[in-house]
Every structure is written in structure tokens, then in C-alpha cells.
Design a protein that fits this description.
Layout lengths: L3 E2 H12 L1 H5 L4 E19 L2 E16 L2 E17 L4 E11 L5 E11 L3 E12 L5 E13 L2 E4 L2 E20 L3
Parallel strand pairs: 1-4
Antiparallel strand pairs: 2-3, 2-10, 3-4, 4-5, 5-6, 6-7, 7-8, 8-10, 9-10
Amino acid sequence: MRMFNGPLALCASLLIATAPALAQDEPQVFNAFAIAVANGAIVRSAEKQATIAGTVAGPMFVETDEGPIEAGRVTCSAMVKVDQGSRRVTGGGACSFVADDAAAAWGEWECTGYLLLGCRGKLTLNGGSGRFAGVSGESTMTWRPSANVLKQQIDGPTIQNWTGVLSWRDFKLAKAKP
């Protein structure tokens, strides 16, 4: 079973393509994206505020001169606050990127934006396993939702199958020196 999650899949594919350079400790810069699906719960947290807690996951692709190459899968946790008056969102979470060979990288993200338009912020990698052991890096991370389905449940609304695109621009990736 393939385990690639958005940003992490991107890192995985980029690391596959840049393995010789990383072996020489040369930082790599690339762009990547994931076709992702978000699922989670919406909890009213104040009179005009809601909090969304969930996950965003999907296959990750690295952009190359020859077109996108699938790099793995990314899964990100998300905790996002929504101001229901202005529809402004602020949030953060963690991402796990897993390549086909089970090598993984992890990072944390934060972003701001507007409900239904998406958010933009920063992803910072803080480690990994397998061939990604000792990896570090950072990127601008953007979430752009394309459609959503809110389902009313007994305990409140949920997000189910909210599709969109996660993207990472100017992703700087490096391995720690041995």
C-alpha cells in the first residue's frame, strides 16, 4: 500500500530525484503539489468562531521540466480557527510525507487566509527516517479547496471529502552532514 501524503510525497519524489546531490549535502530547491482530500469536524468555539480539526491527505507530485512526477503520499493534521464574521482563518498542524520505499519526512505548518479560498503559510521540516533521516527544509505552503461537502451529524457539522490542492513553492531541502 502506498503511503504518500501531499507535502511529504512531494519531498519524497524530490529526494528520489535529487538523491545524488543530497548525498553531497547540496540543498535542493523544487516545487511540489498534492491533490488532497480534507476530512474533519467543525466545532463552534465562540459566538462568531468555529474550529476545524481534521486531516488533509493525498498523493504528492514534484514538478519537473518533463511534467509532474508522483513522489509519494502526504498526510497533514490541521487545527484551523474560523472567524465567522470576516471568514478569516488561521491554523497549523503537522505533515508526514512517505515515499514508496517507506522513507518518511515530518514537518510542521502554519497558515492564514479565508474560508473557501484557502490559506498560505510556511512548512518547516524537522526530521525523517530511512533515506530522509536528518532532512531539513522549508517551503511556502498553500491550501486551495475546490469543493466541500458539510454533513450534519448529531454532534455538529463535519467536513467530508473537501477536495483541493496543497502546493509547496521554492521548497528548500537539505540533509544534515554526517
